[in-house]
Design a protein that fits this description.
mainly alpha; 0% strand; globular
Length: 69
């Protein structure tokens, strides 16, 4: 399943996980570079991969399970 950039942006703003200004900058970079917003957020270290995966699972209504432990 795929989460749209606008849905991700709205959730990040609602949850205050990324400051609004930094998120807007990431959105601009993603559009200009034709990348997914999630990829730009990870590249800029605005979110950890685990945090992003947990958030995506929550948005999709799927329980997050960490298999590393």
């Amino acid at each position: 399943m795929h989460i749209e950039s606008e849905q991700l942006k709205a959730f990040l703003l609602d949850a205050n996980l990324v400051p609004k200004g930094k998120l807007e900058d990431a959105v601009k970079i993603a559009k200009k570079a034709k990348k997914r917003l999630r990829d730009v957020l990870l590249e800029q270290n605005l979110l950890s991969e685990e945090t992003l995966l947990r958030m995506e699972a929550y948005i999709l209504g799927i329980p997050f399970v960490n298999l590393e432990k």
